[in-house]
Amino acid sequence: MEKPHNSEESKSNNRQKRTREKILNLAMHVLAKKPKASLNEIAEAAEIGRATLFRYFKSRKQLIHELVVEADQKLENATKPILEQKLTARDTLEEYIKVLVPLGASFHFLSSEQIYSECSGIEDLYRNQLVRLKELSTKLREEKVVAADIPPVWIAAVLDNLIYTAWVTVSEGDIARNDAPGLVLHSFLNGLSPV
After folding, report:
1. How many CB atoms lie within 10 A of CB 101?
2. Nearest one of 133, 124, 193 to 163, comparing CA atoms
3. Which one, of 189, 89, 86, lies nearest residue 133 by Cα?
4. For residue 111, how many other CB atoms are within 10 A of its CB?
5. How far apart are the C-alpha atoms of 28 and 38, rounded to whole Å?
6. In the chain, what are the domains?
7. What digits encode the pLDDT tens for the residues 22-68?
């Protein structure tokens, strides 16, 4: 008789895990587009009731904190292997773009001032992402991929916004997922002028 109990318990745990992951995923998307979105808006996007949302996350602060930690981990896992390859700046940029476009919501979410005002202690996580971007920006300038007089902070901001724009247009079905990284790279390196 223990097996049915364990099986039912396992099914319940799996369902709870899937629900939690769904909430986190959709909350990331909602908050990346609208940082001041209410918990009601997040619950609606996840197609759950507000009470269910509160069963998983006791407060907006807890939800945002967990989103920040998850976003940082996703970005770290995606970018660290690229940095370890010791590629040229241009190749590093291209690989970064390929892995970051699908993570555009996470990438953009971490830069939201609204998120900072609601969740203390996340500055270090975002600073890690900025350090990597600024290091890449400096390397791009040194290798003359971008003009030497453009400040690294501007390069990082442009890249952040292009990645977010690619993520939004892909998620809304306006451009193909496979086209997005090339469009970001072209726009970053050439603007909108023809090659």
Report:
1. 24
2. 133
3. 89
4. 19
5. 13
6. 1-58 (1.10.10.60), 59-195 (1.10.357.10)
7. 999 999 989 888 888 999 999 999 999 999 999 999 998 899 888 88
